[in-house]
């Protein structure tokens, strides 16, 4: 029996990298079901948010088979979490879209502080290899033609190769 029924894992996933995969695995270890909240879901084609919601969703949906998580795809739900003008609005929107959850997993201090202040349990699984696995560094490597492919799951590499590398040159 797992410690929690539902874990909410929130991030921007720009792109979904191996550090995110580490945290997702922690969520699956501690909860029967995981809701992945894709933050800033309305943003795309900017320097910090190059991929749209649908592309980020596909990155995550490709993972169960690719990352050895076969059989858990039915335990993962993905929802869009757009930015809102206030913290209170954001929290209301999250709760409305997600429904009931027992614990929040994120590495974003803003997300964790809002959730904690509102009485939700929060969990930090630890930053896995943060020196290499940070979205801003990976995006910079992609833009500059550096070695980034070993930092994201293989299926995500294929999606980035096909869809976005050319777009980076326009930012």
Question: Can you give a write-up of this model?
Answer:
The protein has a 5-stranded parallel sheet, sandwiched between helices. The N and C termini lie far apart (47 Å). The protein is built from 8 helices and 5 strands. Helix content is 42%, strand content 17%. By secondary structure, it is of the alpha/beta class. It has one domain (4-168): 3-Layer(aba) Sandwich (Rossmann fold). The model has no long low-confidence stretch (mean pLDDT 85). The chain has helices at residues 18-30, 53-61, 63-66, 87-98, 109-117, 135-144, 154-163, 165-168, and strands spanning 4-11, 31-39, 76-81, 103-105, 121-123.
Spell out the blueprint of helices and strands:
Blueprint lengths: L3 E8 L6 H13 E9 L13 H9 L1 H4 L9 E6 L5 H12 L4 E3 L3 H9 L3 E3 L11 H10 L9 H10 L1 H4 L3
Parallel strand pairs: 1-2, 1-4, 2-3, 4-5
């Amino acid at each position: 029996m797992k410690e929690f029924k539902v874990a909410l894992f929130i991030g921007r996933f720009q792109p979904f990298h191996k550090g995110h995969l580490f945290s997702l695995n922690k969520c699956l270890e501690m909860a029967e079901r995981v809701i992945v909240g894709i933050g800033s879901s309305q943003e795309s084609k900017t320097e910090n948010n190059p991929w749209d919601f649908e592309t980020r969703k596909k990155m995550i949906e490709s993972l169960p088979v690719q990352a050895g998580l076969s059989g858990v795809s039915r335990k993962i739900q993905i929802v869009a979490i757009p930015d809102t003008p206030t913290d209170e609005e954001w929290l209301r929107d999250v709760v409305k879209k997600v429904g009931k959850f027992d614990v929040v997993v994120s590495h974003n201090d803003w997300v964790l502080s809002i959730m904690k202040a509102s009485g939700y349990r929060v969990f930090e699984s630890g930053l896995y290899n943060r020196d290499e696995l940070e979205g801003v560094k990976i995006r910079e490597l992609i833009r500059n033609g550096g070695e980034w492919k070993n930092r994201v799951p293989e299926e995500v590499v294929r999606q980035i190769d096909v869809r976005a590398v050319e777009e980076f040159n326009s930012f």
